[in-house]
Amino acid sequence: MLAHEFMRNALVAGTAIGAASGLVGYLLVLRAQVFAADALSHVAFTGALAAAAFGIDVRVGLFAATIAVAVGMGGLGERAQPDDVAIGTVFAWILGLGVLFLAIFTTQQSAGNGTAAVRVLFGSIFGLSGFDTTIAIAIGIATLAAALAIARPLIFASLDPEVADAQGVPVRIVGIAFLVVLAVVAGEATQAVGALLLLGLMAAPAAAARNLARNPYAGLALSTAIAVGAVWLGLTLAYLEPSLPPSTAIIFVAAGAFVATAAARRLQAM
Amino acid sequence: MTTSAAIFQGLSWNVVSDVRQLFAYHFMVNALAAGTAVAVMAGAVGWFMVLRRQTFAGHTLAMIAFPGAAGAALAGLPLAFGYFGACAAGAIALAGVSADRVGSHSRESAATGIVQAVGLAVGFLFVALYHGLLNDVSALLFGTFLGISDGQTVTLAVVAAASLALLAFGGRPLLFASVDTETARAAGVPVAMLSLGFLLLLGVAVAATSQITGALLVFALLVAPPATAQRLTARPGPGLALSIGIGLAVTWLGLALAYFSIYPAGFYITSLAFAAYVGAHVATRVRRARP
Amino acid sequence: MSALELRDATVRLGGRTIWHDVSLDIERGSFAAVLGSNGAGKSTLLKVALGLLPLTHGTVRVDGRIGYLPQRRHFDASSRIRGVDIVRLGLDGSRWGVPLPSRADDERRRRVHEVIELVGATDYATRPLGTLSGGEQQRLLIAQALVRRPGLLLLDEPLDSLDLTNQGAVASLVQRICREQDVAVLLVAHDVNPILGYLDEVIYFAGGTAVSGQPEDVINTETLSRLYGAPIEVLRTRDGRLVVVGQPEAPFVHGHRHDH
After folding, report:
1. CB atoms B121 and A99 under 8 Å
2. Who contacts A189 (Cβ-Cβ below 8 Å, separation ≥6)?
3. Secondary structure class of C5 (helix, strand, coil)
4. Helix spans in chain A (H)
5. Quick check: C79 and B179 CB within 8 A?
6. Quick check: A116 pLDDT over 80?
7. Of A15, A207, B40, B170, whose CB is crowded by the most CB atoms within 10 A?
8. What interface predicted TM-score (ipTM) does this complex get?
9. To the nearest whole number, what is the mean pLDDT of chain A?
10. Contact of C123 with C164, CB cutoff 8 Å
11. What is the C-alpha separation between A218 and C174, in angstroms, rounded?
């Protein structure tokens, strides 16, 4: 299996992306900001396809869009939970825009290259070049470092915002920094499992970790480990069974971990 | 980039001839008929859904519609089977989970994100197994109006008519139970039964709407027109009518624009619905500001 | 004419006797407050009157229809439903089918406006409930409870979220409705003082049973001490307020405030 370069690339890049997703995802669940990842996944899709339609590197569109929206969300501040209806309608329109760019892009390509959309929506981890992998490692390490750096004040601010603020933690800045890190990780995860599934890679290992450990630092480590494990196992399964798309396999394993831990917890409580 | 003349091919200033063009092709007639049925149904059911704050449930059901339809395609069954079957099962599951609560503010919950991801992953698996090309995924996710069969059109029309009849019959108790649950229960309204019944109806509405807008853009017809209507009026009767009216306008105009241009209907319908929603917000803000 | 009558009534719930041997007689046109500490069984009385809870012993008789205002109904700011619609739903919300224009429909619409005027809410009945204040919402909800011409009106802690001025206003409204509409009213309250001046009688739950009668006959040192089986003192302040001192804590069975 490891003889194939595409597999090696996938594993290496996937490890970096998985670790970052698991770590950031745990903080996300802790802060009850899952909807932010949902928003960014929609924006990632549209940004990537907009870039494709304009002939720019997809990654540029991905990261530009996600980071811009993340900063915007952070700028709006810690408002009360916005209206579900408003959120949903805006999301739908963002996706609609993405569909427009998809159509523009598809009609431009004389070869009818429609697979770009599938790659953006559902990932293309088996199609990564050595260069892609290097970038993934670099971004993965950078985001891991950044996330770890702000983890302690972030956890503090998430669990007890008023006390943290009183103790001089720059709650707002840390919050915005987190959203930016989240945006970058979301952009990377889009290349691995796709815009539509990245929410699963961020939420499932984190939720599983929360089922296993109450201590936030233990949870951080567990979430990262589970995410990486899901990537490895998922990629292996996809390699062994070619009809199984890798992104699907990864999500299945991650979700499976969540269900298993939830069931274990239910049994323990009885 | 393409010029606007190239974007809108065949569109002229003569509205009559434009409209006549729309009806020239059978597939377009089907699309308009199906779109009408769906818009009416989504406008009515969606009005109650927004009132009951169950938009999250609608979104989750849409995430189940996609693998349902993809699975049906894989199994060689008519797509409608997959859509309606999956959404009905999903509705019953949701009813079991949320018991009696009207509206669940669970956008934060990791569980809903996971369910969504798994649903989409399964759908992608089915499409991949079907050796489906981009078109299939794109159609299921973002809608298509090109390949709507006669059978589909008839099914949607019947389903829409039945839904409207059900809503006409149970609308008053449903309204009562939605806005004033305790008093309704004390007055003898079967609140729990209505909740389950409504979730099933919502599943059916989601399944129907997904066939026009695709699973990801369901919100455009199921949420935006009702939310717009509720912004504009608090009265139930006119509100319902307005919701249906906006849905119809958005669908017809969106389909017409998509016919004459090279861009997909999903984009037009979503954008028009969003524009209406924003417009209502702005209008009410202005109305409120005026002394 | 008696609107609500209990004879030697006992209620058991979840293996626990909430109250026993309760007898009372509330006449039409009488304004009664239901008092007692948390968990003593105040809301239970309402549930018994509504027929939602069966008696383990004794009889309950209700004459005529019942209008019911459940506890803690607050419509948040995003509620778009109008007061007039809520009242209308109280009248025919449980009927199936679409209301068609007809003479009966006109009659119903007239009744809705009549009862809204009765509670003095005509000015704001067509605004969304979410934009109204607590006192305004409460008036419309009382109108909803009255729209079917009940003989007995049950109000479960309606004054909870209101300020003192509004409490007095609502109490005054209730008293007027009692007299003019010949309705018996049972109002569950935590503090009797804001409404003391409007009451005809008091039903006090304590020590597993209840005593009813005129306020001064029930809320005094002897009666309450006898009821609680513990030394209770009832003091009257200079401005006429009653203060009950020495109430033992009600047995804490459930952590849920609504379980009386």
Report:
1. no
2. A17, A20, A21, A198, A201, A202
3. strand
4. 5-30, 34-53, 58-76, 84-108, 115-122, 130-159, 161-166, 171-193, 198-212, 216-240, 246-269
5. yes
6. no
7. A207
8. 0.89
9. 86
10. no
11. 59
Are A193 and A123 contacting, i.e. CB atoms less than 8 angstroms apart?
yes
Q: Do B224 and A29 make contact, defined as CB atoms within 8 angstroms?
A: no
Looking at A33-129, list the stretches that DSSP marks H as alpha helix, in order from N- to C-terminal side.
Answer: 34-53, 58-76, 84-108, 115-122
| Tens-digit pLDDT profile for residues A56-112 | 888 888 899 999 988 888 776 555 456 778 877 888 889 889 888 888 887 776 555
C103 Cβ neighbours under 8 A, 6+ residues apart: none
In chain C, the residue whose alpha carbon lies closest to the alpha carbon of B231 is C80
**Nearest Cα to Cα of residue B201 among B231, B165, B153, B173:** B165
HSE (side-chain half, CA atoms, 13 Å) at C215: 19
Q: Would the CB atoms of A89 and B227 count as touching at under 8 Å?
A: yes
The structure tokens listed for A200 are: 């699963």
Q: What is the pLDDT of residues A239-267, one digit of tens each?
A: 998 889 999 999 999 999 999 998 888 88
Confidence label for A227 from pLDDT (cuts 50, 70 and 90): very high
A-B contacts at Cβ under 8 angstroms: 159
Residue B142 neighbours by CB under 8 Å, 6+ apart: A95, A99, A102, B213, B214, B216, B217, B264, B266
Phi/psi for C73 (5° steps) reads -95, 105
State which amino acid sits at residue B275: A
Strand C16-27 versus strand C2-13 pairing type: antiparallel
Q: How far is A211 from chain B (nearest CA, A)?
A: 12
pLDDT in tens, C64-84: 888 888 876 667 777 788 999
Spell out the domains of chain A, with CATH numbers in brackets: 5-264 (1.10.3470.10)
Beta-carbon contacts of B266 under 8 Å, excluding residues fewer than 6 positions away, are A96, A99, B142, B143, B213, B214, B217, B220
Question: Phi, psi (5° rounding) for residue A209?
Answer: -60, -40
Q: Kindly list the partner chains of chain A, i.e. chains with 3 or more CB atom pairs below 8 Å.
A: B
Residue B113 CA from chain centroid, whole number: 20
Give the position of tokens 């370069």.
Answer: A5
Q: Is residue B159 within 8 Å of B41, Cβ to Cβ?
A: yes
Structural domains of chain C, ranges and CATH numbers in brackets: 2-245 (3.40.50.300)
Interface test with C, best of B51, B55, B174, B180 (most C CBs within 10 A): B180
Q: Beta partners for C82? A: C128
For chain B, the first-to-last Cα distance in angstroms comes to 47
Q: What is the pTM of this model?
A: 0.83
Burial (CB count within 10 angstroms: exposed 0-12, middle 13-18, buried 19+), residue A12: middle
Give the start-end residues of each E strand in chain C.
2-13, 16-27, 31-36, 57-62, 66-69, 152-156, 184-188, 201-206, 209-213, 233-236, 242-245
Residue B11 pLDDT: 65
Q: Give domain B23-289's CATH number out of 3.40.30.10, 1.10.3470.10, 3.40.50.1950, 1.10.287.130.
A: 1.10.3470.10
